[in-house]
Amino acid sequence: MADPSSYRPKPGQIPDSPGVYRFRDEHGRVIYVGKAKSLRQRLANYFQDLAGLHPRTRTMVTTAASVEWTVVSTEVEALQLEYSWIKEFDPRFNVKYRDDKSYPYLAVTLNEEFPRVQVMRGAKKKGVRYFGPYGHAWAIRETVDLMLRVFPVRTCSAGVFKRSAQIGRPCLLGYIGKCSAPCVGRISAEDHHELAEEFCDFMAGRTGAYIRRLERQMQDAAEEMEYERAARLRDDIGALRRAMEKSAVVLADATDADLIAVAEDELEAAVQIFHVRGGRVRGQRGWVTDKVEAVSTAGLVEHALQQLYGEERGDAVPKEVLVPALPEPVEPVQQWLAERRGSQVSLRIPQRGDKKDLMATVERNAQQALALHKTKRASDLTTRSRALEEIARALGLETVPLRIECFDISHLQGEDVVASMVVFEDGLARKSEYRRFQIKTFEGQDDVRSMHEVIGRRFKRYLQEKQRSGEWTEEPAGEAPVEDDGVPDAMAGRPTDDDGRPKRFAYPPQLVVVDGGAPQVAAARRALDELGIDDVAVCGLAKRLEEVWLPEEDDPVVLPRTSEGLYLLQRVRDEAHRFAISYQRSKRTKRLKSSPLDAVAGLGESRRQALLKHFGSLKRLRAATIEEICEVSGIGRKTAESVAAALAGAAPSAPAVNTATGEIIEDDGVPSAALSAERGQDR
């Protein structure tokens, strides 16, 4: 733990103006981002007596090793910069959001010539109208199915639309009256676009006038004795009313508003949002927040607003936002929302009437979400904490290993040797930081040498990044790790750690686990020692007896079979094994599906299959003369010469594959089940 006085800037160095500040740890990672109306006054609060700080704030300032700031003109600019930096750096001491789903929206692509109604997730696109979010995609499809009877807007994909236009025949929806079939010209592009806009108007809440118009048309048709048309209009009105019933009226004045409620305890908070459009609840979403920083309800509301509207298009911000507590100060947040929307936004606490009653409903949902989350997570969190403590105790570590990296070697009888690296943080897999390696310094099977190479390559990157950030004075030997495609990954050659970005290869673990026993552990420890790294613990987990091996120890550490620590190590090891096997299989499959014929220019798939079918195997094709090859239909003399030359220079052991059946054709011409048999021999 660092002493904050060691990096505390002098008061005169800090400007007395709005800005955003960043705390970094000893590795240069951004661990906290904050904004301030006065940087000098705000930063002074962090460098007071540690006993007077909130426990979370005290942990943050003692973890940090430096602080820096950026001056901006206004508090609104500070709010915007703070949000962008939190999204970019993912600081560990800022409020963490855990949204457990990607919420679907009902989208209408008004930016296309023939607009399409569909379900969309993710980032918003320009020129697309969105309605929602909905809790489930099926709820959108039910609503759309009812409304297509009245608004037969296109719902098909671009491929289906193009195909129907080519053959001059619409799809099934066009035949049953749930699509106006613009693909075959039943409706013009202008009329179809107008139909899509009417669909959007109805979804936006302008329903009363439209239904009244349909009712008048139904009555007129009945008076004119056009009973079939009147019946159709009656059914259309019924379908629209059923669609409207799916979102009950909650605010009589057709208000567009978002209601945000928070339920919290000392460690976590649940945020719930109701989206009300046209007086109806059109969607609901929520997430759970880790209170890793000392934050009030008002602060949680401000973070929720940033999370909710930071990446939304302006039309997603409603006229009114109702919250349980106002951010302090509220003016910059209101101005930011107004800029996002393009017009004034009312941010306030509901005091009476229907809006206060609806806010109570949202709060009950937030409380239930928090209770449900704590019920699900309590045992899991407790178990993970106990597992990490058991591992630290068994291995004699000074602190629990919050980051664990595990390495495994995979091959098939010495061929296609690869390695995997998986990462677990706080006992959970961090798949975004997994890595794969090809063994490049030697051929054949040698798990010990392979482990030494992989560990060395991984931690050379760490040293290179430390050198770029000025923390290392020697130039480490070797090159950056190469990924599975043979090209250095996006981290190579770029000082990304200097930028504090969260996704980096060089972030060091507290514990390295290798799949194997004493030899593999010794190889890993030797690789670290050669690089001068002595602050990373190493252990191995031998699969035979699930023994934990430590460097330079003659006897293994035996954890009880019921130990949560052993179970966590097994999960880490098995995940590394799975990841390595999947990579090794993909490489082997590519190799087995290759053939010397693939390199022959102008020889397509059909003629390759014709050659194999005619001769029965590559062995017989290789032995054939040019005249015999020319006897195959479609093979001229020039192509035959190219085939003969390619086979003469190819290794005779390379198998061919019948792409129609997926079977491997051996040199004797007999299809083989080798691929499936080999899968059972994977290491």
Automatic annotation (TrEMBL):
Residues 472-487 have a biased composition (Acidic residues). The keyword DNA damage applies. One of its GO terms (molecular function) is excinuclease ABC activity. Residues 466-504 are annotated as: Disordered. Pfam families: GIY-YIG, HHH_5, UVR, UvrC_RNaseH, UvrC_RNaseH_dom. Residues 259-528 form the UvrC family homology region profile domain. Residues 208-243 form the UVR domain. It is found in: Cytoplasm. Residues 16-95 form the GIY-YIG domain. One of its GO terms (cellular component) is cytoplasm. GO terms for biological process: nucleotide-excision repair; SOS response. Keywords: Cytoplasm, DNA damage, DNA excision, DNA repair, Excision nuclease, SOS response. SUPFAM superfamilies: C-terminal UvrC-binding domain of UvrB, GIY-YIG endonuclease, RuvA domain 2-like. InterPro entries: GIY-YIG_endonuc (IPR000305), GIY-YIG_endonuc_sf (IPR035901), GIY-YIG_UvrC_Cho (IPR047296), Hlx-hairpin-Hlx_DNA-bd_motif (IPR003583), RuvA_2-like (IPR010994), UVR_dom (IPR001943), UVR_dom_sf (IPR036876), UvrABC_protein_C (IPR050066). NCBIfam families: PRK00558.1-5, uvrC. Belongs to the UvrC family. The UvrABC repair system catalyzes the recognition and processing of DNA lesions. UvrC both incises the 5' and 3' sides of the lesion. The N-terminal half is responsible for the 3' incision and the C-terminal half is responsible for the 5' incision. Interacts with UvrB in an incision complex. This is UvrABC system protein C.
